Amino acid sequence: MTFTPVDRPDGSIEFWVTVRPRASRSEIAGIRDDTLLVRVTAPPIEGEANAALVRTLADALDIPIRRIVIVAGEHQRRKRLRITGLTSAELLARLEQFRMQRA
Q1: What pLDDT digit, counting tens, does each position of 84-101 carry?
Q2: Of 52, 53, 72, 101, whose Cβ has the fewest other Cβ atoms within 10 Å?
Q3: How far is Cα 80 from Cα 16, in angstroms, rounded to an integer?
C-alpha cells in the first residue's frame, strides 16, 4: 500500500498517521506503508501526544491548528486525521517540500 490521502466532497482530506510519542524531537519522520509517521516529544498521557501531533502537523504544513481533527484512533498510535481546506495534492506537495528541506 502507499500513502494516499482521500479527498472528501466537503473540501477536506483524510489520511492515516502513526504517532511515535516520547521521541527526542517532534517531526514528520516520513511515510511508512500507507501512513504518515510523526514523532512527538510528548508522552501518550491525557491527550498530550495528540495535541503535540496536531501542533507538529500544523507547523510543518503551515496551517491553523483548528483545521486538523483526529477522527479515529484517539487512544491509539495509528490515527485517522481530517484536514479542512487542503487537497491531497497540496498535502503531498507540502510534505515533499518538507522532506527536501530536511535533506
Answers
A1: 999 999 999 998 875 644
A2: 101
A3: 5
Q: Which CATH superfamily is domain 6-102 in?
A: YggU-like (3.30.1200.10)
CA distance 86 to 82: 10
Query: Mind spelling out the 3-state secondary structure of 3-25?
Result: CCCEECCCCEEEEEEEEECCCCC
Report the chain's mean pLDDT, rounded to a whole number: 92
Angle at 39 between CA 80 and CA 83, to 5 degrees: 35
Determine the length of the chain.
103
pLDDT tens digits, 14-58:
999 999 999 999 999 988 888 999 999 999 999 999 999 999 999
The answer to whether the CB of 23 falls within 8 A of the CB of 40 is: yes
Enumerate the domain spans of the chain: 6-102
Determine the pLDDT at residue 98: 59
